[in-house]
Amino acid sequence: MMKLNHIFQKLHKQNKGQNRILGFCIFLSVLLITSFSLMYYGPTVQNFLAQGGDTRKMANLLLGITAVGCLIFTMYASGLFFRYKSREYGIFLALGESKKTLKKVLFRELASITAVAAVWGFLAAIPASFLIWKLFETFLVSTREMKYQFGFDGFIVGIAFAMILCLLLGISGQKFVKRTDIMEILKTQHKTEMVKEIKPWTFTVGIVLIFVGILGGLALPSISAYVFHRRLSDLTNLFYLFSLAGIYLVLLNIVAQNRLGKKKEKFYKNMVSISMMRFFAKSATRNMCVIVLLLFSCIFAGYYGALYADSSALFDLTNSKGFALHYPAPEVQITKEDVQRTADSYGVEIKEFGEADACNFLISFKCRDLNDDMQYITVENSRSKYALFFSEDSYECLTGRKADVPSGTYKTVTPTDYKENIWDFTDGLWEASNPDTGRSLSLTNSGTLEYDALAAMSDPYAYVLNNQDYALLAEGLTEIHKEHLILFDTEDLSGSYPFAYDLMRQYVGHATDLSNHLGLYDAQEEKLATEQGHEYALAGKIDMSMDNALLLGDWKYAPAFVVVTNEMFMQTFCVYIMLSLYIAIITLTAAAIMSYVRSISIASDNRTLFENLSKLGAGKAYQRNILAKQLVKIFQYPAVLGCLIGFLFSSAMSWFNDGRYTGTELKTLALLLGFALFIIMFLYIVYRTALHKAEQIVGIRE
Fold it and tell me: Coil, helix or strand for 513?
């Protein structure tokens, strides 16, 4: 007599296709999450990401969304697995087998599939992470700082994900075996999910809700800040729930269409196809909603990646000389002779060399701050911090340009194409004071000057004064409040990297505690905080070494050597790009597999229907047309909706960020359109593959 285990083994062989789908989904989920975690938590990536930075938050958020997406499509595959198990499970119950025995056998099989797939996912994660890193490294940048290093913390994330997945699968299995109605179990595979009549207006309402959600979440905070000078609560993020509801209504309207409309012939011609989708409308709509959200995450990650890919333009400093450095005047640093000697050793020709001093004066200025009532209020700060000031002559010596500042006024130095933000005013300064003598000078604004390198040396701005005003105010100022600046160019800027790197190494080597400060450190702010008994947040020191990947971004006196800056920032940006593209790959893969699995489910669930159509005389071309219309909805509508919402959200975010589109943002959005087209083409290939397999399942293709 054949034992129960042997019977299950034979049934397992017959239904191995469903077991393979579930195992593959578990394997792929664990592989994608673990391989990303190995790379993300590796020393190379972590050293480039600032603690608490926006990119780290974005990566964590999208990783969380991706993990949820992987869990959902794996659980969907498990639902398909249990649907096929329902028949054999119900038969054994009908034959008198105990549920306790069947439960053990079922959980043993489920545990075996999960364990084997998860282990293979872990094993494949290491080479997959390495190969993807090397692929990105080949196309982006390859330096010793970008050497691949995986982090063991990634295994913890992968194991945690696998444990959560096992728990959810166990809960689903427990729910499955708790059913007591044998007839319900036997009919599970043919159970429909009819919905009530869906009114035509739900589509329009859904579209409106999508726009309301996106614009409410993005536009309201910006409008409130810039127009009403009030910061709204983070509860405005709840507006995005309107978009989610809108997506559901739009898809439900498409899936559950059941009205004749004006074109009755078209309705009756497609009645079989329409009815098939309606029979599973609820699950189909939920499935498509998840796919839309995954594709939205894919598009949004692609947007970030494209934005970073073009961010190197921010450091071209085309409005500045190629080499700029500043340091406290008392510090013994590299000199013009050091620069020339180093240039000679590398065969580099120096040109337009400029050298001058500048003064740090206390400033009285107005800016905006956020009060306890979440309002942006204009605040007048009297001698609350330092700012860097140049005379007309020193500005001309350093830049080669005239400033022409009238007496009693100042000009604000800004970056190229600068747009004033909500916090600071370019004309907000009204007084500058000598911290040693106490002498003050009332000033008014007479315009702005664009020079990238000098603008980056002072916060909120650097300023230029009339020569006589500058001399009067600087009289009696001690050296500790002065800075020395050197700006110059080379004949061949792009070919001067070895020289620039050596010069930067010398500069860092000469740096002392006088210049060892964080980027936004201000001595006056620290003094005021200490007097009030507060701890100054920017009082710490940094690692003053060339091995510090964040040196240029964190150091107050970091040199601006274009070729070195571009190289180091490109390394950081490549990490950002890699994270974004990796998340885009994961979400797109998850969406494609979920669509494919849904397609196979539709074919399997409707096999009997197609057999009946064949008996009624329907040709294979007619049946193929019905099946194709079913599957195309699974791919077409989520693809278009997900890409469209992702592009709309990215466009809105770019606009409401500062009320305009920069050249970089326009190029990014153009790249995003290309990326959306790629996604649609990729999903079309998956659709053709799924259609081929579905035709085999229903018996209309050999």
Answer: coil
